[in-house]
Fold each of these.
Amino acid sequence: MTPPLTEGRERLVLWLLALIQFTVIMDFMVMMPLAPQLMHAFAISPAQFSGAVSAYAWCAGASGLLAATYIDRFDRKRMLLAVFMLFNLSNLACALAPNFHVLVLSRAFAGLTGGVLGAIGMAIIGDLIPAQRRGAATGIVMTSFSMAAILGVPLGVGLAARFGWQSPFYLLVVFSMLIWFTAAGVLPAMTSHLGSRTPLARVLPELAGLFRVPAHLRAFLLTFVTMLGGMLVIPYISPVLVGNLGVAPGDIMWIYMAGGSAAFFSSRLIGKWSDRAGRQHVFRIIGVGSVLPVLAITHLPQLPLLALVCFFPFFMVLMNGRVVPMQALMTTVPEPHRRGAFLSANAAVQQVATGLGALLGGLWLHTDAAGRISGYGLNGWLAAALALFGCWWVGRVQPAAAPAVTVPA
């Protein structure tokens, strides 16, 4: 059984998980502001670029679903280290890709590995952190999104502008290896879930059974619509800013840095707020609030760079803020012995929604001879509708009943 962690060790583990997620999110996010450079370097259209984004997501979804069959059968620490090393190799393959087809294959390999890391991290939170503090814990790990926007994406864009689009992936390889060695020394062994693991002959039936539990299906649908709505909008922000508003590719870093800085501080505050006020309640408030910036960013008029830098924090705080209470809520939906499998399946649903959103969002976008992209406004309306549906649906996602406590006679 995993012994309780001291407060300092617990915080160290959470920040280490945040750094691991930082590399995963940077790996995914850096593709988006690099879109203009990649589209130019490989002579591809927005729809083809969306195919590269969705290749990662489809493979991440498939690997997350497969992981549900084995994630609860191993020590969490060993599983995390093994998958993280494979993820590092995928980034090296991206950096060495000689053409677009090889890059897409490398992105698929990155998805196969990166898609599992998020589920392992959330399972570790579920194993180590009491339920009443998981919102705050999730908020710390979710700062990884903000850190990627503050440091990872701007640094990646700056390196790409100076040394080529491959340089962000080389940076990820070096940084990820440093984190890997630190994780190997800091993370405790986590085996308490192994005592009630499912027999091997029951693994596939149990996996199918995850999708027959109504409470699980309600949770999966919330994840699906939340991620689908976000990915209809997010991958195309940079191409639209460059093509429609004339923002220089190198200036994209300032926009992401401003948004990420705001989200970095808001994620932990939102996590603590969700522990106090209730995760469904906080999700609804932020979800409704996200509609306006979503519609604004998909219908932007010609604006100076400073105005875009000032606006983007509102978008980032609200879009990222929805995920904090949602992820904390997901750790409470399954029974403890099925937590890893459920979160792997939920990560698969999340990645499928991500891939579908990126793919659908690019289908009706068109680039004219001047480089302007049309059709983006429809993405905004669809994303807003999905956000409002999620605010209504979240009330149907409820935690699993606490196990009954036998009182001695």
Amino acid sequence: MSTLLEQLGATTALQWIAMAAGILGVWLSIKEKVAAWPLFILCYGCYLYLYFGNLNAFAGMNGVFILISIYGWIRWAKVPGATTQAIPITRTPRAHWPIIGAVIVVATGGIGWLLSQSGEANVPYIDAFATLCAFVAQWMLSRKQIETWIFWLISDMIYLVLVFQQQDWPTVLLFTIFIYLAWKGLRDWARQLD
């Protein structure tokens, strides 16, 4: 069993950049700063590069996150000369919930099956469910829907358990920080809605 200090020492510069960009991106998204999106793209791009050809499912997941982040950046950006304000924080419309539920159920089954066939996940359906919650969370973040933070909490808590079981201590630390930030985002955005 390697220790946290040994694992931190073995962490590459690119992994540190990805982690720092991810943490700073979440912090800036809580503050509703458009600069969060290029940081997310940097974070996901680093992970895509690191895992392409090795953990293809993880690399593919980061590719999807890059696409959603490009969409979020466009949506959050203020166009010079535009008369509209930045998009406000809102709640997810009730009509969207059945669609969200169906996407999570169907895609969890599909991605879980693919992961079980590839052997890239120890618990493929749980991993797939956490991934789908993260996709939904990123999509909701791009639309500034407060429920983004609930889906991030669900996803991050599942991943925290999974990486804890693997004794991947730097990633345990990272997901602990993400859980705190998701809780903070939920609290801060809720104050603006009330």
